[in-house]
Specification:
This protein is an alpha+beta fold and about 375 residues long. It is built from 10 helices and 19 strands. The protein folds into 3 domains: about 200 residues, Jelly Rolls, CATH 2.60.120.650; about 45 residues, no CATH class; about 90 residues, Malonyl-Coenzyme A Acyl Carrier Protein, domain 2. A hairpin with a 2-residue loop joins strand 16 and strand 17. The longest helix is centred in the middle third of the chain and has 15 residues. The model has no long low-confidence stretch (mean pLDDT about 95). The protein binds succinic acid (SIN) and cobalt (II) ion (CO).
Amino acid sequence: MYELNLDINDFLDTYWQKKPTVIKQGFSDFSDPILPDEIAGLAMEEEIESRLVYRDQKDQWQAECGPFESFEKLDADGATLLIQAVDNWHEDAQQLIRPFRFIPNWRIDDLMISYSTPKGGVGPHIDNYDVFIIQGLGKRHWRVGAKQSLKEFAAHGALKHCEHFDAIIDVELEPGDILYIPVGFPHEGYAIEPSMNYSVGFRAPDQNDLLSSFADHLIDTNENAERYTDRSMQLREKSGQIETQELEELHRVMLANCATPEQLIPWLGKMLSEAKHDLDLAPPESPHSNEHVIDALNEGAQFIRLGGLRTMYFEQNPSLIFINGEQYDFHECSELGQLLCDQDEVASELLSVINDNPLALDLFTLLINKGYWYTI
Ligand code: SIN
Ligand code: CO
């Protein structure tokens, strides 16, 4: 269990998405939830995204994507192995996301872990996500610059760097220290000793992400798409001109399906709840029955939400629950849906919600049989 030493209100007011800060001993007595060897083990797996970044004998940046069979590069200084979405694969590491759930689930991206040998780092760069970088094992020197426009270039096909920047934060992180870097602030960090870093990342969609996803949704679902029609064509002098009211009508047709925020809910719920990385889905071999689920709860079982599973609902319509890119109707049991979205683990508190509510029990059993919640 990791407890974050942070005045959350002050952090949200002063720093979140505004400016970088160091949270000295954000976790006191920090102990790493995962070992470097386990990190290497994950990097050997096909479905897990991993990257090795190092400088070659000519001091040129190199980046290789996994899976890896061996790790000779990590015998030398100046190398970093990075694994994406470790929260999907490692239950103990997943615990590191929980202290940051004061930022809502829909904003959380993943937990990336890096292991660096001394002098290892990925070089100066700008991320398009907000990140809390937790120092685990070892020490690392970090520099963060002000938000500014800097030239960016490919130091290697798979490694984007930015030009030199002056530091507004220049710090040596020790185990348990946290560096918060908002989107767009240049930074670079180099290990002083063999070093583990845990990055809890938050990536917000931009206009292009939203519009292209909404367009895909319309193509899939809007069979009888409204077509532009000429409402009152008049004889005109200028055949090369698109008239103002025609432009206005095109604009109206284009936006008719997204004129109100509520119209976005079915699409946005699906889009935002889609898994960002492969899930470690392992549905039970023989499906559980409702009775089995009730018995387990009565015996004190805890049901844990699968790492990386994205679950959410909208304030306007809290009985529509979005799980892993699908919409579920929790109409008769919205309390259950909200509990499943708001908590990483559920136990006896579920009993009062699903007892005497067959629909709720059916839905929860269905979700367990899909492998979305599991008990240990
Ligand atoms: C790392 O952990 O090596 C990279 C983290 C970052 O700079 O975003
Ligand atoms: Co970064």
